[in-house]
Write a structure and sequence with these properties.
The complex is a heterodimer of chains A (about 750) and B (about 350). Chain A has about 750 residues and is of the alpha+beta class. Helix content of chain A is about 25%, strand content about 25%. Chain A folds into three domains: about 150 residues, Aldehyde Oxidoreductase, domain 4 (2-Layer Sandwich), CATH 3.30.365.10; about 180 residues, Alpha-Beta Complex (Aldehyde Oxidoreductase, domain 3); about 350 residues, Aldehyde oxidase/xanthine dehydrogenase, molybdopterin binding domain (Aldehyde Oxidoreductase, domain 4), CATH 3.30.365. Chain B has 13 helices and twelve strands. A five-stranded antiparallel sheet of chain B has the order 4-5-8-6-7. Chain B has a four-stranded antiparallel sheet with strand order 9-10-11-12, with helices on both faces. The chains are: A alpha+beta (about 750), B alpha+beta (about 350). Chains A and B meet through helix 3, strand 31 and helix 16 of A and helix 8 and helix 13 of B. Chain A: GO terms for molecular function: iron ion binding; oxidoreductase activity.
């Protein structure tokens, strides 16, 4: 029996004790010596010019060190490319404090630096700024005719495929046809930890930068390019991140501010955002979608048209894949997918958990529900009838796809067969009961990733890869993979991340971290294992002599022959016997290009939701959710389940609560705080069941990992809206499904 | 946040004196609202006078047989006080419907009366607001006003009073005990808060030098037939879109005495005595409740995003009165209030 078999086991978080005891330090918690504090001043107008900044008034306050603004920022990098980070969209990135132009409300316009945090905040509140106001335009609803197709989008964006078949004609000829417009306003990520950077000034231009980010290397590159620093001068550390959800994929402006101030003042500086300023950055864009479906007499999809228009800023063309999924989730030969952006006076939107797909699946899956009613077919049966056996967008086979099993297992667990299809037919006392379901699909991606491993004579293995753990369990699963690969107990393995001195890892996003870093860790440990085997074979009387790496296994602290497990060498004994202090390996894992290009690589899920609605008061509660997920191999069912639980809560939040409401008179989000931007509290969340339908898939990547960051969210909002329809007979296509909409 | 001095009040009289001498003094008790307001630069007191050490924490019998709630007793201690639970369960329910356990552990009864509106514009100094900056205009009228008032509004302000506790206190006909430079006085709860009118900067009717020392609950029994129904966007830590405090005394099925107050709909806890009169002497039926509800909203006015509150208030009143009459606040809607 193997005691070092950890993959697939519900191992507790290895970073749990550090987090609950406070030993885990976040960016704003590094109390470096002689620290100064910066407070950001945000613009009160949405568009115009700064005409005067009364900096002198607050510089007179003892302890105020400097007021940085466009008036005194030194000359920095000139070209746009210097400001482009790994996932910058097309266009011209916003440059903080460089120019007097105000492009959106709450734009950072000044940084006040003082000896204490309180003083910086106080002085910032006193800073008088005069503006020349220009008329702004923040309402996407007025831009319906001004949409344009983006040119080159950001990394990972794929333009919608060309239309296939004859969708217009087939929609006209369809037996049943439904159409609808689906809308949601902007939504902000709002991770618990606010953006902060502590920049430790080490003399000359040398900096230690503690940053809240989902990619230390991305922050490093940005700082290097903008401020002309070397790698050595811009050392970035980000070991713990209090939630990201995509908000940390791009360097946020507090990083620029803190580095600027540290270099100019030649001392250490910390800049943290306020909760309100967390609404001054990227967000899920306000999106208008149109979906039209047609079916044949047998309930098969005859044609599909999905159109999306969403906001972007005046200076960058943010893109996400909203409509593409609709061309691959169901079998349909006549498909038209169109996608447009419109520019308004806001900051550029940004990837937010399942960017594009969360939006697109809401519209498509509600439309599928509407069609199921129109055609008189059970919504689950309707989806099974239109099950896609291959990816019609890419014209490829799926590397694996157990969505059908998700439907069956989810439905069985939920008790779907007991559903009465008639709206308003199911009751619990005076409450209306509604059951709805929906489907989701997300990319199973992998990125190039480097890792190193060091095994020391005391029997300890340390593995490094400069990724991030945004709370998902990266520390834990990488420790599991490393320990199992070299047959060591978990306690003998330390995985470190979040430091630009470590081997380079991709941004922590896109659901690719487990696959990218996981396979890199596996490879580098195998490389180290080969060295260990060689040394073991040189030991006196070694039973492993002549064995190839494939002929042995690393289990229970031993290397042993597959053919005879009693022929073994204790791993701890190898280095002392060979007289070495340590063994090291470094490796860069590259995705297999053939597998990546030959197959369609995706994770899927099926969500079943029960809601209860008070028909008189319009109050709605999600009382039960079953989320069945097929996402390849599950490395740790405990952290994996946690991730999907979080996704479900997020989906309920999207369905029922979240919206950043803009007052177009001011061009400003008005509910910019945790009190008025609602996300669920514990009392809003009831039973959630997570089912993993495991897939064995050696094409997606050697470890068979598909990633779980986003897929669990998909379908949840649509399933809630569909359940609300089943309960009430009211089709709400405009999120959130709130009391005012259910009441009237 | 501005720079301020912080001192502790040595006694009620001293506190009153200090406040009278300097209008820039602000009292702080639990601090659950004023600190937020200071961080947002909405309140900028130059002096904070801490009341927490004054001997006003007691909850004890009042001379008329009612209950006296010390101004510095916390909301949590008040809600869970055995006499409150037994004799004034409506107040218990209202307090527990508000805020979060952490906030209720800090917040005091006196402070609850003085909490300020959660109007988005009041909180955001980048926008005009007559309450924050008299004469600057009301941004909520014509702006985003989903959480705003439908009753007793003015052209200057449509903000709501955010308290849950105060809605129950209005329904229970509480009396506020006040100390000032001219000695003590009592204020009927209905006269404590005010409507915005031409001076929305004033939330209440106290003089600048006055300090709340206690809240008296009269010796009346609404412990059998009551309901605090709070409708909001999430189950905790959200202000009421509409809340209703309903309390009845029944003789068989006939309503002997009725109390009805609403939260989330006006600049003050909105007690409607006309509607109470409509209920009195009538059978406790849905028809009666509907008439009372219609009376309450007869003068209501919507401003766009908040217009749904008129219908919601009507239905909530009927439901709350029904629950009160049945004595089953939670039976018919298990989700309406999710108290611990």
């Amino acid at each position: 029996m193997s005691t070092t078999s950890y993959i697939g086991k519900p191992v507790n978080r290895v970073d749990g004790p550090a987090k609950v005891t406070g030993a885990a330090k976040y960016a704003a918690e590094f109390n470096v010596p002689h620290l100064a504090y910066g407070h950001i001043v945000s613009s009160s107008i949405a568009k115009g010019k700064i005409t005067k900044i009364y900096a002198d008034e607050i510089l007179a306050i003892p302890g105020v060190l400097q007021v940085f603004s466009h008036e005194n920022v030194p000359s920095l990098a000139w070209f746009d490319r210097s400001y482009k980070d790994d996932v910058a969209p097309g266009g011209s990135p916003f440059r903080p404090l460089q120019g007097n132009e105000v492009k959106y409300s709450m734009q950072p316009v000044a940084l006040v630096v003082a000896e204490t945090f309180e003083l910086a905040r106080y002085a910032a509140a006193l800073l008088r700024i005069e503006y020349e106001v220009t008329k702004h335009d923040t309402d996407l609803e007025t831009k319906r005719d001004d949409g344009f197709e983006p040119g080159r989008g950001k990394t990972g964006w794929v333009p919608p495929p060309k239309p296939r078949g004859n969708p217009d004609k087939e929609l006209k000829n369809a037996t049943h046809r439904v159409e609808g417009e689906y809308i949601h306003l902007a939504q902000h990520h709002n991770p618990m930890e606010m953006f902060a950077s502590t920049v430790e000034f080490l003399g000359d231009k040398k900096l230690n930068i503690y940053d809240k980010t989902q990619g230390a290397f991305n922050s490093q590159q940005y700082v290097m390019k903008v401020f002309g620093l070397s790698k050595d001068e811009a050392h970035v550390v980000s070991q713990y991140t209090g939630g990201g959800f995509g908000s940390g994929l791009r360097p946020q402006y507090q990083l620029f501010m803190a580095v600027l101030a540290a270099l100019e003042l030649k001392r250490s500086v910390r800049v943290s955002m306020t909760r309100q300023q967390m609404f001054s950055m990227g967000h899920r864009p306000h999106t208008l979608q149109y979906v039209e479906l047609g079916t044949n007499p047998d309930g098969s999809l005859a044609a599909l048209h999905h159109h999306a228009l969403h906001e972007t800023s005046q200076f960058e063309d943010y893109t996400e894949n909203v409509v593409n999924w609709s061309g691959m989730l169901y079998q349909c030969d006549n498909v038209k997918l169109t996608y447009q952006l419109a520019k308004i006076d806001v900051y550029t939107p940004q990837d937010m958990r399942a960017p594009g797909a969360a939006t697109g699946s809401f519209a498509l899956e509600c439309a599928m529900d509407e069609m199921a009613y129109a055609a008189g077919i059970d919504p689950l049966e309707f989806r099974l009838r239109n099950y896609a056996e291959r990816d019609q967008n890419l014209k490829r086979e799926f590397s694996s796809k157990k969505l059908r099993e998700c439907y069956h297992e989810g439905a069985a667990k939920f008790g779907w067969e007991k559903r009465n299809p008639e709206p308003r037919s199911m009751r619990d006392g005076d409450l209306l009961v509604g059951w709805g379901m929906a489907t989701g699909v997300w990319d199973a991606s992998i990125q190039k990733c480097a890792a190193s491993a060091t095994f020391t004579a005391d029997g300890h293995l340390t593995v490094l890869s400069g990724t991030n753990d945004i709370g998902t369990g990266t520390y834990t699963i990488m420790t599991q993979i490393a320990a199992q690969t070299l047959g060591l107990p978990l306690e003998a393995v330390t995985f470190k991340l979040g430091d630009t001195n470590q081997p380079e890892a991709p941004l922590q996003g896109g659901s690719w971290t487990a696959a990218s870093v996981g396979n890199a860790v596996k490879q580098v440990c195998d490389k180290l294992g080969e060295q260990l085997l060689k040394l073991a074979q040189k030991m006196e009387g070694s039973p492993l002599k002549g064995a190839a790496y494939e002929d042995v296994e690393f289990v229970n602290g031993q290397i042993r022959l597959n053919a005879d497990i009693n022929q073994a060498v204790v791993i701890r004994d190898i280095l002392p016997a060979s007289g070495k202090d340590k063994l090291e390996a470094e490796n860069t894992m590259l995705p297999n290009p053939i597998n990546q290009l030959k197959n369609s690589l995706h994770a899927h899920n099926a969500v079943f939701v029960e809601v209860k609605v008070d028909p008189e008061l319009g109050t709605l509660h999600v009382t039960r959710v079953v989320n069945a997920v097929a996402a390849g191999r599950i490395l740790n069912p405990k952290t994996a389940r946690s991730q999907v639980l979080g996704s479900v809560v997020w989906g309920i939040s999207m369905a029922l609560m979240e919206e950043s409401v803009m007052d177009h008179g001011f061009g400003r989000y008005m509910n910019h705080n945790y009190s008025e931007y609602h996300i669920p509290v514990s009392a809003d969340i009831h039973d959630i069941d997570v089912i993993f339908v495991e897939e064995e898939d050696d094409k997606v990547n050697p470890l068979g990992i598909k990633g779980l960051g986003e897929v669990g969210l998909l379908g949840v909002a649509a399933a809630v809206a569909n359940a609300a329809f089943h309960a009430t007979g009211k089709r709400i296509r405009n999120l959130p499904v709130s009391i005012d909409k259910l009441l009237l | 946040m501005n720079s301020f001095t912080y001192t502790r009040a040595s006694g009620v009289e001293a506190a009153v004196r200090e406040k009278a001498a300097d209008n820039a003094v602000k009292f702080i008790a639990g601090g659950t609202n004023i600190l937020d307001l200071m961080k947002e630069n909405v309140e900028r007191p130059s002096r904070l006078l801490d009341l927490n050490h004054l001997p006003l924490k007691a909850i004890e019998a009042a001379p008329d047989g009612g209950l006296r709630l010390g101004a510095l007793a916390t909301n949590a201690d008040t809600a869970w006080h055995p006499e409150v639970q037994k004799r004034y369960p409506l107040l218990n329910q209202a307090i527990l419907a508000g805020a979060s356990p952490q906030l209720r552990n800090m917040a005091t009864n006196g402070g609850n009366l003085f909490q300020r509106t959660r109007c988005y514009y009041f909180y955001d100094t980048a926008t005009p607001c007559n309450k924050r900056e008299p004469g600057s205009g009301c941004s909520a009228i014509g702006g985003y006003n989903r959480i705003h008032a439908i009753l007793g509004t003015s052209e200057q302000c449509i903000a709501t009073h955010p308290s849950d506790m105060c809605v129950a206190l209005a329904a229970l006909k509480a009396t506020v005990r006040v100390s000032g430079q001219n000695g003590e006085r009592t204020v009927k709860f209905e006269n404590f808060h005010r409507l915005p009118g031409d001076a929305p900067e004033f939330d209440h009717t106290l003089a600048p030098d006055e300090l709340v020392t206690a809240i008296d609950l009269p010796n009346e029994d609404f412990s059998q037939h009551f309901s605090y129904l709070k409708l909001r966007d999430r189950q905790s830590y959200a202000f009421a879109l509409v809340s209703v405090a309903a309390a009845l005394q029944l003789d068989g099925n006939t309503i002997k005495e009725a109390r009805l107050a609403l939260g989330g709909v006006a600049h003050k806890p909105w007690r409607d005595q006309q509607a109470e009169e409509l209920l009195k002497g009538q059978p406790a039926t849905e028809d009666t409740f509907r008439k009372a509800a219609a009376a309450v909203v007869s003068s209501a006015r919507g401003y766009g995003h908040n217009t749904f509150k008129i219908e919601l208030a009507k239905r909530a009143i009927v439901r709350a009165l029904k629950q009160a009459a049945e004595g089953t606040q939670h039976a018919s809607d298990i989700f309406t209030n999710s108290n611990p």
